[in-house]
Design a protein that fits this description.
By secondary structure, the chain is mainly beta. The protein folds into 3 domains: 97 residues, no CATH class; 217 residues, Sandwich (Jelly Rolls); 151 residues, no CATH class. The radius of gyration is 26 Å and the shape is elongated. Helix 1 packs across helix 2. The two termini are 21 Å apart. It is 7% helix and 45% strand.
Length: 489
Amino acid sequence: MRLQRFHLEKAAMEFLAVRSPLLFEVFKTNSGERERVESTEGDARFRIFHARFPERTVPGNLILTRDMKSTGSHLLATILLPLAIACVTSAGAAPLSPDSILPGGPKSWKLVWNDEFDYPDAKLDNRWISQNGPSGHILCSRWRENAKVKNGMLRLINKKEKRGGQDWTSGSILTKEKFQYGYFECRYRYAAAEGTNNSFWLMTQNKGKPAKGKNFEIDINEGHFPNEINTNIHNWSDIKVVNGRKTHPSSSKSFSFGARPDVTVQLEIPVKTRRVRLTSTHGSHFHLGEFRIYNVNPAGYPDPLSETADQDKPGLVNFARDAEIKASGFHKNGKDTTPNLVDGRIGSTWVTQIDGPKSVEFTLPDEQTIGCIQFVNGWKDKGNWKAMPDNYRVEYHDGSKWVEMAKFDILDGQYNFARDFQTYGLEWNEKELVFYFNGKPVRREKNTFCHSESPVWLSLAIIGWGGKITDAIDGTFMEVDYVRIYQRK
């Protein structure tokens, strides 16, 4: 009932958006939540970010405003929404689907299961099972009390409290129903702290060997604050013991959004200096690769990821090669890895210490005129760039103080997945597994063993490999808008 009503009201908004100027804003007046609807005038393509309508909301509770600076006029939903609904329905058109990011478009799919979390908290147990107990492989126990439904959202909440023999608690739930094949989609945002694992995933619960394929786990996303997506495929049937440790076949691929491995800071106004440094307040260790400090070069500058960068352009002089290098610390055993910053190899890196501010400083033998700085950010593992800092500053010393040349902070950009909701999806069929982020495929693999039914899991965890564990985690939450499951028509 609610979803049908959603389709109708959304179709009405689409009708208005296509015929309006460039920008509509939706104000959900009963909750104070402000969302945006963007469209190209005269074009049916548009994006609606979270225009959700609880059953208690009637069209009169919505206000549409039109960006018309010359008149400042406003369109009232109490007038236009009913009109638009009438236009849509009288034309004989079926209600438009809200799922415009489905692979191949909504016409290829039918919705077979969904949870919009638009009910009292107690009703969560009608369709979901909650973990209630400790977790040996992570740093928190997980309990039903840490899963809360409120205002049309599910929150899995981290708490600093001793329970189940662990110092932290969090939440994890799985569906009572099991599914095989289809498109699985969840819209959620991360807990706003390092050291958290924000997961939407599948894992079989077969007793023994399944009739077809293997026991498996598909992590559609194990998200790490603020901007990391991690996709994993695990074969849990073929566990082996190697050198006294259990292991199993698995395949992982990670993505960091917003940060780049290839960084070039080209100065419009060259600077004279003997000292250059990079600083960061990143909460854990990170990798920094080849660091170059170039002269002003009319022939230009090379690709930062080139193994032969210093020879790629005529006239280049890399002053970093002769610099004295001083670092804030090192990751393992105190071994000095700063020579890796200037050895000409992309694959070798300086790895910072885990705790405290990070910095590396280059002191040149003499003052030089600097035209460009380059460095390789992170390290490459099986085609994926990992361990990139989420913030840094590049500075030079003018003789009396440090002066900023460039800075980056992931939280200032569009890729803060704790601030903004994102949509994660998996198309799972007999032949392949395709992972999606906001409607775009990011990974495609052959399906060689994932062929039995599985519940859907939503889990928040506190983990040592997701960043530094601090009191900042306390009270943070993974917030879920919806879960929807489709099958091909």
